Amino acid sequence: MQKQLTTFAILLAAISLFSCTNGTQGTKEQDEKCQPIRTEVPERPAGQKDVLGLAAPKLDAVRVGFIGLGMRGPGAVERFTYIPGTKIVALCDLHADRVERAQAILDKAGLPRAAAYSGSEEAWKELVERDDLDLVYIATDWKHHAEMMVYAMEQGKHVACEVPAAMTLDEIWSVVNTAEKTQKHAMQLENCVYDFFELTTLNMAQQGLFGEVLHAEGAYIHNLRDFWDSYEGDWRMQYNKEFRGDVYATHGMGPAAQVLDIHRGDKMNVLVSMDTRPVNIPEYLIEERGMDRDSAYNFANGQHTMTMIRTEKGKTIHIQHDVSSPRPYTRMYQVSGTKGFANKYPNQGYALEGEMLDESVTPDHENLNAHAYVSDEVRDALMTKYKHRIHQELEEKAKEVGGHGGMDFIMDYRLVYCLRNGLPLDMDVYDLAEWCSLAELSRISIEHNSAPVEVPDFTRGNWDRIQGFEHAFAD
Ligand SMILES: NC(=O)c1ccc[n+]([C@@H]2O[C@H](COP(=O)([O-])OP(=O)(O)OC[C@H]3O[C@@H](n4cnc5c(N)ncnc54)[C@H](O)[C@@H]3O)[C@@H](O)[C@H]2O)c1
Known about the structure:
Layout: H1 2-17, H2 28-33, E1 62-67, H3 73-80, E2 86-92, H4 96-108, E3 115-117, H5 123-129, E4 135-138, H6 142-154, E5 158-161, H7 169-182, E6 186-188, H8 196-206, E7 213-221, H9 235-242, H10 250-259, E8 268-275, H11 280-289, H12 293-297, E9 305-311, E10 316-322, E11 334-337, E12 340-343, E13 349-352, H13 376-385, H14 389-401, H15 407-420, H16 429-436, H17 438-447, E14 453-454
Parallel strand pairs: 1-2, 1-4, 2-3, 4-5, 5-6, 7-10
Antiparallel strand pairs: 7-11, 8-9, 8-14, 9-10, 11-12, 12-13
Helix pairs in contact: 6-7, 7-16, 10-16, 14-15
Bound molecules: nicotinamide-adenine-dinucleotide.
């Protein structure tokens, strides 16, 4: 029913949109007809309250169960063996041998074996129903995420879920509503917000070094050619075959949204999206999988997808997705403000007006301006001076444990730290909703000739109650 309503709302908006003229100066009536396509925002059910700043009771130890032990999951199990105050209680995967492989990680760490669940599509429910778990950690394919999160919260557990934690607006609203109804944490495991350059840059932005940040960019540009055959049941290829739009936006969105204080004083209002036709994946399907040309080119996801978003406070975000072009890995990550600029790929660099720097960074600061990048020495001095408190405390251990250079460990550590200290998590369910919403919203835009699409306010009116993004600490 909800799906039908959403479709109906989209159609209504699309019909009015297509009655717009091409004139550059519209009449008032035409402007009114040119409103963005709007999807339905379901009313908050009576008796349910938002979870902004949610702090759950402190946990002495975090008892965790993992679901999904394919390429990604076992790394998380291993990282948890290094985090104090955790107990790995249960492990689940469709395949018993994958559970066994994860048990071997516990053996190696000298920890007791966990309860094992496998052998059926529904075995995970038994894990979730256990009464000795605080947290369910999900690393399955995209199509299972939302269902597992919702069920886990309904069973009284906090949930942490790999990216993207939800794929459709219906799934997102269901996760948001369940988090609000149960007052449980639902955190998306977006690791890139803990990367050393991103978090340092966030700290610099929060200290005002870039002036007012007006624009941020992010991306997931990663040729997955070597991975396509390794996903269980070919789920990732099948998803891309079926859906147009940015289906994996969160690595780009996370750092951009945090630096722009999204739902903490600003909100995303509208997006437009555009893509190229797909070529390299269809050719791969022909060459490597022997598929006939017509079937291979019956492929929905564009090779390169671009989305532009404008916020309530007049700021912009540019997000890109490309998992098949032969080009170097990049998450783009750029931050542009009134006094400076940060760029992560291919070379990490900062360009700042001299007035934003001082002697502690370089004696030559008065002669600098943002027309050029600062030298490597000045950049390193900046990165040392503005190292985030989280990195000051965790960098050494994170680099030792690893996981994408350490950011995965920091993500898991912070999750456990906040749960144990009864603090709001670094990423809440509205972050999850906003970052994941690009999948469906960008598809709607592309399928309507790149029409503007309204980004729903998932907080339902409370996007500026918290002013400024910040990480919580116990002291
Ligand atoms: N944050 C990152 O940097 C990062 C990196 C890689 C993958 N990921 C994400 O991690 C998730 C998993 O990706 P992957 O590469 O490990 O995929 P994968 O296919 O290797 O693993 C998925 C696992 O889930 C299991 N599974 C599927 N249905 C299940 C069910 N009903 N019950 C129990 N287990 C089930 C499968 O058997 C498989 O072992 C995805 O969301 C992906 O996007 C994130």
